[in-house]
Write a structure and sequence with these properties.
This is Hydrolase. The protein has 237 residues and is an alpha/beta fold. It has 9 helices and 6 strands.
């Protein structure tokens, strides 16, 4: 039986080597962005409001407080941000209780990183309760550490979550490869000084200097991520 893990790609020079991989969760590793929107639509319908499809791109990838605040302002719903946040998280937690689907290529990528003992962090704007439930599908053993949005004073699009993850892994941000699916997450990672590969999910991510954009995680492997650090990859659109 042959292994599904490819032979390790050649190592880069020590001064330019990949030190850690930092991965977003919703829409990047697990196909849950649609779940969030479904929950938001259902909750606001119960409040007597209809969400416009165009708002989906505004709230995707953002911290709960930002998304909840925007939707309250947009609809005029009579509910506090804290109350809405609890309601949305509770509904979402119930929805994913039976497991969540992984994005194409996610399982293989996580297995490869684990096989070659690459320090790996899950960095999400989702709350700890949600992350811990999703980890049951992703495999907690695949991550050296996890960073939750409700454990940070400032989460994405601020660089803080990625700076914290890099520091805890003992890695230099510039030698960390980040995989993200939203502009909010990409902005956070780039502000932290990390090298970023964007895999757009709900909304397109525009081209930018030093940003690599691919169509699927199936295009990303350990050799590809090492290439981000050594500068072997040019942006792909």
């Amino acid at each position: 039986m042959t292994s599904s893990i490819p032979a390790a790609p050649p190592r880069a020079a020590a001064g330019s080597a990949l030190q850690a991989v930092l991965l977003d969760m919703d829409g990047t590793l697990v196909d849950t962005e649609g779940f969030w929107w479904e929950v938001e639509v259902a909750v606001f319908a119960e409040l007597g409001h209809q969400l416009l499809e165009e708002w989906r791109e505004v709230v995707v990838g953002g911290p709960m407080t930002r998304s909840a605040s925007f939707l309250i302002r947009a609809t005029g719903a009579k509910i506090a941000v804290t109350e809405l946040s609890v309601l949305l998280n509770t509904r979402f937690s119930e929805m994913i209780g039976r497991g969540v689907p992984l994005m194409p290529g996610a399982r293989r990528l996580l297995a490869e990183l684990a096989a070659y003992k690459i320090p790996t962090a899950l960095v999400s704007a989702s709350h700890r309760e949600i992350i811990d439930r999703v980890l049951l599908s992703l495999g907690p053993e695949n991550f050296t550490l996890t960073v939750a949005g409700d454990e940070m004073e400032r989460t994405k699009p601020h660089p803080d979550p990625y700076l914290l993850a890099a520091a805890r892994l003992g890695a230099e941000p510039g030698r960390c490869a980040v995989v993200e699916d939203t502009l909010t997450g990409v902005t956070a990672a780039e502000a932290a000084g990390c090298r970023v590969v964007a895999v757009p999910s709900v909304a397109p991510i525009p081209a930018a200097a030093g940003r690599t954009v691919v169509g699927s995680l199936e295009e990303v492997d350990l050799g590809f991520l090492r290439g981000l650090i050594t500068g072997m990859h040019s942006p792909v659109h």
